[in-house]
Every structure is written in structure tokens, then in C-alpha cells.
Amino acid sequence: MKPKSTYTSELPCIAIIGGGSWATAIIKILSEKELKIKWWLRNEEDVNYISQYGHNPHYLSDVQINLRKVKAYTDIRKTVEKARYVIMAVPAAFVQQAMQGLLPEHLAGKTLISAIKGMIPGENLLVTDWVERDFRVPAERLCVIAGPCHAEEVALEKQSYLTIASQSIDQAADFANLMSCRFVQASPTDDVYGIEYCAVMKNIIALACGITHGLNYGDNFQAVLVSNAMQEIKRFIDHIYPKHRDLSGSAYLGDLLVTAYSQFSRNRTFGNMIGRGYSVKSAQVEMNMIAEGYYAVKSIHEINKEHKVSMPITEMVYSILYEKTPPHTAVQALKEVLR
């Protein structure tokens, strides 16, 4: 039986773009508040299924969607209409395609939030920079969701922590309040670029951890790899966007650790398959999910051609995935520079 909907237009409105596990988890979090949530998915069959049964048929299917608060659409313009906040929660490789039905006027006056931990492939742009450029959204109306928070644990209501970044700390604080609930604590920061670049780079490091695990390197080596990786991230971010920041915080180090070690980490899983001998294509087909680090490492590699920051772990991952260097050979070379 189709659950009865008491969906009303008087509640504050938030739009979510994306039909995957992270989008589903964000909807679960927001449903803890009295909000009107408009959810865009590409597939009409998925929209019909969600509207009838209150579950995402493909991702986190155990999560009960509160149809009193959530309405699903395939029309993206209708989805963002009257929304105060628009959250982008699709892989970076597909966000341009997902948003192609929108024009700058459709987003005028709205706050855009990136829940995407990746870069725009081919353009080597952070998602916030792309939105600011192509949709003319002012920087103070852009936010980033970051932190060590896997969708699978949100689905299980495991205690989690998020950081909301915006150039406007008041804007970040307002949205952090919306993203806080009985099992999620969110806090604001103004370090937009630091948070966003760290979120991109920790996926690359997780690939490296997966590759070395697939090659049967142990916990001792993983610990050295991750500690060197944190130094590598700091060198790059401080060079790209100098600012006083504490990279030991949960949005930086915490996000790196959970992505490098968790069983839920897509990037670690992808890297592990590469280390065990899978080709890139075969690993992508078997996973049937996007590992953001695969695209991100190419973008960071190309950006760093200009800046020339020492990034041996990033370069190792790039050489394996894009130059077809055998993983064993690449890791052997990396071992000589780790300390």
C-alpha cells in the first residue's frame, strides 16, 4: 500500500540532486527536521518506486524515506523551484550532466551546497568554483559538506560528525544546524578551499592504501603511508590556498582516516582491486560505483604541473592508473621516499 503523504508547501524547502547512497543518507539526516525535501533522480522508475514504497531501490534500500516530508522528481527545474538550499550529491564526473537542465536564473537567490568529494574532470575545477563560474552563484552562497561520514553508517544511525564550510560563517552555521540531528553533529568553518581540496585528496590517498593492501603490505606500512599522506596534503593545500588551519581536525585528518581504512570506502576498495591485479576498467565494472579518486588524481596531477609541490603518493597513484605502471613497481619506488 502506498504510504499516505501529507507533503505541504508551508515548510522550509531543500532540494537534493542525486539518487545515490550519499544523497539518500543526506535525506535521512534532513528528515529528522520539519522540512520540505524535494529529491531529484534521473530515472522515472526510481521516482515511482520511491513514491510508492518509500525506499531507494538501488542504494541504502533499508532506509525508510519519510514521504510526509520527501517528494521525488525527475524534473530538475521543478525540484529546485522555491528551494532555499540546493544540495548537489552526485559524483563529480556526472554533476555537469545532472545540472544541465538548469540556468543561472533558476538558482538565483539560493544557497548551493556541494556534497561532492571530487573535481570536475577535464576542467580541473573544484565543484564550488564550477558552480560560481557557470551558474553565477556568489561565493558567499556556496557551502561544502565534509567530514568522516560514510553513508552506510548514517543509514545505521551511527554517531557521525560533519563540517559545513562557507565563506560566510553565518551561512555555514545555519546549514550546520539543519544537518545536525540525534545521530549527526555538524559544525561550521570558513575554510572552503582547504576542506574541499582535502576531501578530494583523501580519496587519492585511499586509493594508495587500497593498492598497497592489495599487494599485501601490512598495517605498519599503511600507518607510514597515511602519515606521509597527511604531510603531502598539507604541502599542497598550504601552497594552493595559504591559510591558518589545523589539519588534525575531523574534516581533514578524520576524513582521511575513515576513507583510508573503512570497509565502506569505495576508493580503498577500488585501489585494493588494482593492487590485486584488476585493470581499471574491470575494477570499475565490478564495483558498479564511482571511486572519485580515479578522476581526482588526474586533476590534481595536472594542477600540480604548474605548482610543482612534492607529492610522491599522488604521483604513484597517477602512474599506476593512467600510465599503466605495474603497482608493485610503483610502490617499490615510493618506499624509498617515505619516512
From TrEMBL:
Location of the Glycerol-3-phosphate dehydrogenase NAD-dependent C-terminal domain: 191-332
Record keyword Membrane present: no
Tree of life domain: Bacteria
An example Gene Ontology molecular-function term: glycerol-3-phosphate dehydrogenase [NAD(P)+] activity
EC number, as in UniProt: 1.1.1.94
Gene3D superfamilies found in the cross-reference section: N-(1-d-carboxylethyl)-l-norvaline Dehydrogenase, domain 2, NAD(P)-binding Rossmann-like Domain
InterPro entries hit by this protein: 6-PGluconate_DH-like_C_sf (IPR008927), 6PGD_dom2 (IPR013328), G3P_DH_NAD-dep (IPR006168), G3P_DH_NAD-dep_C (IPR006109), G3P_DH_NAD-dep_N (IPR011128), NAD(P)-bd_dom_sf (IPR036291)
Pfam families, alphabetized: NAD_Gly3P_dh_C, NAD_Gly3P_dh_N
Domain Glycerol-3-phosphate dehydrogenase NAD-dependent N-terminal, residue spans: 14-169
Catalytic reaction annotation: sn-glycerol 3-phosphate + NADP(+) = dihydroxyacetone phosphate + NADPH + H(+)
Transferase as UniProt keyword: no
UniProt KW keywords: Lipid biosynthesis, Lipid metabolism, NAD, Oxidoreductase, Phospholipid biosynthesis, Phospholipid metabolism
Sequence similarity: Belongs to the NAD-dependent glycerol-3-phosphate dehydrogenase family.
Protein name as it appears in the record: Glycerol-3-phosphate dehydrogenase
Organism of this sequence: Rhodocytophaga aerolata
